[in-house]
């Protein structure tokens, strides 16, 4: 930036950015505004956003319906505590999510982020057993390549070679397994469940696609194996659909597409169309019923301060309106086709290990990516007018569902060109 704005110069010495080596990484890019599928920079340049702000802005930025709902709610009631009080937005949203979710996932516990939604789910599953008098069920089965958030319990069930590496000494030990792919994988998974038996509080996984763990895809048979083998043994299953929910892989929910119903479902990110942070944890009746009774100790003792924030609920209800009235499933199918065609040439570029697409997710996996080359790629994408942020060995696209075919083609062509040059 030739002449950064004053607010940028004043704040840069004081901010601490996420997932960033502050001593080495190039300075962040200053943003002035967003609109649709574009990010406008403070220096006047415009970028096509290929990742929808960590795959949240599924309807595009600044959708007028969501903006209007937020504005109206902010003027009426920005926040009210959710302990002993309720408000229309939360009640409407809970009923709508229960109607949309797979099967009988009919109880909704709100929180303020996806990671918190996972913390809630893990606590829910563990206390479910405590309330039933089943002592010793304190460990969770999780899977290689998984990622569930950056809070402590969520890190403990994520892949320990990734974001959680530095915190191993803090984290409780869990049971980490390969995903049960194929008949042999399913049999090995079933044996592990039997081996650990009464120590298991639950199984947590990402249906169809593991996101931040490497954009790893798996088929419906694997998804069904995870759920069916655990539920056959009375072990609650937590489906983390914070990444995959709301059509990202095709169906409204990946679990619905595979015909299974988890015991607990975690939602976030696209829930509000990327406008406001929010999480939701949905539970089936048998989970909720274990917390009922006259004993206060049996109640679920969790309550984020900004739980069911009215502005977040307004944004989420407006987002659900758009899923109902605009052709998101058809748009995702079109994105799948566009990315399949557009990224195919990347397979012929030296250093490419794999190219894969599922729904509105496109991935070019590289054989290796040094930190120096990672920074060079990020800078080159910006120079090409694209916002694409590789991580690890992964260059990925998770665009807004409203993105035009021209912009999708520009993203794919730009990725292929930059990978060939850098």
Q: What this model shows, in words?
A:
- The strands form 4 sheets. This protein has a 7-stranded mixed sheet, with helices on both faces. The protein has a 4-stranded mixed sheet with strand order 1-2-3-15. A 3-stranded antiparallel sheet has the order 13-14-16, covered by helices on one side.
- Helix 3 packs antiparallel against helix 11.
- The chain is globular and about 65 Å long.
- It has helices spanning 6-11, 52-55, 64-76, 88-100, 114-131, 152-156, 182-196, 220-231, 254-258, 285-289, 310-325, 328-343, 371-383, 405-421; strands at residues 31-35, 38-41, 46-49, 107-111, 139-143, 175-177, 200-205, 209-210, 216-217, 237-240, 264-267, 279-283, 352-358, 361-366, 386-387, 394-397.
- The two termini are 21 Å apart.
- The longest helix is centred in the first third of the chain and has 18 residues, at 114-131.
- With 422 residues, it is of the alpha/beta class.
- It folds into 2 domains: 6-59 and 327-421, Aspartate Aminotransferase, domain 1, CATH 3.90.1150; 64-325, Type I PLP-dependent aspartate aminotransferase-like (Major domain) (Aspartate Aminotransferase, domain 2, 3-Layer(aba) Sandwich).
- The protein contains 14 helices and 16 strands.
- The model has no long low-confidence stretch (mean pLDDT 96).
Class by alpha and beta content: alpha/beta
**Shape-level CATH architecture of the largest domain:** 3-Layer(aba) Sandwich
Number of helices: 14
> What is the spatial order of strands in the main beta sheet?
4-12-11-10-7-5-6
Through-space gap between termini: 21 Å
Q: Could you describe the largest sheet, including whether it forms a barrel?
A: 7 strands, mixed
Mean pLDDT: 96
CATH class of the largest domain: Alpha Beta
How big is the Rg? 22 Å
| Integer tally of domains | 2
Q: What coarse outline follows from CA principal-axis ratios?
A: globular
Estimated share of beta-strand residues: 15-25%
Give the low-confidence spans: none
